[in-house]
Structure of Adenylosuccinate synthetase:
Amino acid sequence: MSGTCVIGLQWGDEAKGKLVDLLAPQFDYVVRYQGGANAGHTVVAGSETYKLHHIPSGILHPHVKNMITPGVVINPTTLIAEIDGLAPRGVNCAENMLISERAHLVMPWHIAEDRQTNATEVRGESIGTTNRGIGPCYRDKVGRTHAIRMTDLLQPERDERIRTVAEQKTKILRSLGVPEEELQQIAPDVVVPLAASWAKRLSAMIGDTTEILLDAAEADKKLLFEGAQGALLDIDHGTYPFVTSSNSSGVGICAGSGIPPKWIDHVLGVCKAYSTRVGGGPFVTELEDAVGDQIRKLGNEYGTTTGRPRRCGWFDAVAVRYTARLSGVTRLALMMMDVLAHLDELKVCVAYELDGQRITRFPGHADQLRRCKPIYETIEGWKEPVDDVRSVDDFPEGALAYVRRIEELVGVPVGVLSVGPDRAQTIFTDASSVLKLQPVA
Ligand code: GDP
Ligand code: IMO
Ligand code: MG
C-alpha cells in the first residue's frame, strides 16, 4: 500500500490542488510528474489562498517532501518567483522540495514560440494554449538536439551549451517571424547569465528524485502523485489536437515520475459535478447560454493561470467513463456540488448521437466529437444549499440521487464529495474507507 494518485478526469481545473493538500498529511511524499506552469492548482487553507503552478500541493505541510520529477517541464524564472512568493508566507521550499536533475527546462525561446504560434488554427480553431512554452519545450525534449535539462545547469559546459542553443533558436524563431524586440530576450548574452543565476538559486534543490522515490517505495513509505491538467487533455488519449503536450491521464504517472506501476494502489479520479474547459477544442455538453453563464458565475470559473473565463457545460458521463477507465480510477472525487445546488434542473450526458447513431464510446477524432450531440437525462435540481453539509447522511436526497447516477454511469464509486473550496468543505463517503483516506482538520 504505497502509491495513491490524484488525476483530473475532465479538461483540468477539477480541484486537484484542494484534494492533494487535504490528503498530503497522510503521505510522506507528494509528487508532481508532468506538465509545468500551465497548471494552476488552488489550495485554500483558512483565510489564505495559494495558487501553485510548479510546486506540488503538499508544500503547506512541513513534514511532507515535495518532488518535481523528470516528466515536469520547469520554467526556472517562474519557479523561483513561486518559491519567493511562498517564503514570506512561512512556506520554506528549500527544506522540503526537490527538483529532478532530469527535468527539462522551459527556456525563453519556448515561450516566444508558444506566443508566436498560439493563434495558428488547426482544424479551424486555435488550441488556445496557456502561453507558458509547454508544447515547444516538450517538442525539444523529444527532438533532443535543443533540449536543456536541470542537470545541464550544473555542468561545467553550461554556458557554452546554452549559447549554442540560443544562437540556433534565434535563427529558427526569426524564420517563424518572431519580432526582433522579442528575439533580443533570447539572445545568448541575455540567456547565458540568466541560466547562471538559475543555477545559483536552485542548485541546492536539484537532485535525483527517481532514486529517492524508488528507495521510499521500497521502504513502504507513502507516495501521493499529483496530476496536472486532466485526462481529456492527454497528448495520446485526449481530444487531440486540442490537448496539452504531456500524458495527463493516469497513463503518465509512471513515465513522468520514474515509479513503476507495481507501487500504485489507488487512483482517485477528480471531476467537477459539471464540466469546464479553457481554450479551444470540442466540448459536447457545452452550454453557451444563461445556464452556462450561471455556472461560470456560481463556480467562479475563471482560469487560475491565465484568468480566462472557462467554458461551462453539463456533466459528460461518456467522457468521464472513458477517462476513468483509461486512468485506472478506483474512486471518484466529485467536486463543486455546492454550485449545482442553485440550479432548477440538471442534465447529465449519458450517450452521444453521432451521424444519426447513438454511441457511448468516446470518439478519437476531434471532428467526430464536434459532430456529436449530447443525449441527456434530466434530473430535478435539489435546490438546497450543501456548503455546510459535512456528512453523507445530511446530504439532500436529490443531491445523493445525482451522485448515485454518476457512479452508475461512470462505473466507479464516489469516495469524496466537495461542497466548497475550504478544506473543511469535504465529505469522505463510506467507500473512501477502502482507500484508507481520512479527512484532515
Ligand atoms: P486544479 O487545477 O485542478 O487544482 O483546480 P483549480 O485550482 O484550477 O480550480 C478549482 C477551483 O475551485 C479553485 O478556485 C478551488 O478553490 C475551487 N474549489 C475547489 N473545490 C470546490 C468546491 O467544492 N466548490 C467550489 N465552489 N469551489 C471549489
Ligand atoms: P491544471 O493543472 C485547464 C489547456 C489550455 C489549452 C491546452 C494546451 O490547472 O488543471 P498548454 O499551455 O498546456 O499547451 O495548453 O490545455 N490547459 C489547461 N486547462 N487546466 C490546466 O491545468 C491546463 N493546462 C493546460 O487551456 O486548451
Ligand atoms: Mg487549475
